Amino acid sequence: MSKPVAKTTNRKPAGSNQLRIIGGLWRGRKLSFPDVDGLRPTGDRIRETLFNWLAPDIQGARCLDLFAGSGALGLEALSRGAESSLMLEKNALAAQHLRNHLQLLNASNGQVEHTDSLQWLTQQQAPHPFDIIFIDPPFSLSLWEAVANTLESGGWLADEAIIYLEAPRDARLQLPVSWQLYRDKHAGQVSYRLYHRHTTSDNG
Description:
Blueprint lengths: L17 E3 L9 E3 L11 H11 L7 E5 L5 H8 L4 E6 L2 H13 L5 E5 L2 H7 L6 E6 L8 H10 L3 E12 L10 E9 L2 E8 L7
Parallel strand pairs: 3-4, 3-6, 4-5, 6-7
Antiparallel strand pairs: 1-2, 7-9, 8-9
Helix pairs in contact: 4-5
């Protein structure tokens, strides 16, 4: 008589739905995030590298975190001295967790919008240009180029904005010509890249 097979394939290790802020004011704080399909927080090692890259620019920056998910990027930015962080998240439960985190951390300079990011960018008028933008959508949706073009055409970007983009390693993306690749690295099948925006206008 055969024995039943234990269903262990979908079981997550304890603490797997916890996000740890790795630097700044809230360094070491652990925050939970919901079990939402497609929610894939940027890992500690990648975030450490990214925010080392951003260290000269993060203080006082106005940040826009598209597809915020667990808040790994938007909250880390606030912890490290960003002036503000606007986080957009489509999933209602994830968005509510983000609001709870901001309240727990007394982070009045953080804001959460429960919305579809691409639609929101298309329908809203930019309140001001953003200095740092995080683009890390669910890979299956292939939204990188559409979001990039909307950001560029809609007045969302400061003249010298910095854009972080996370995508599959083999992705070949057609991005605005004003976005110049500054840094890039790989972690497994994930590529993470930092772009600096350079406008074509000159002052002379």
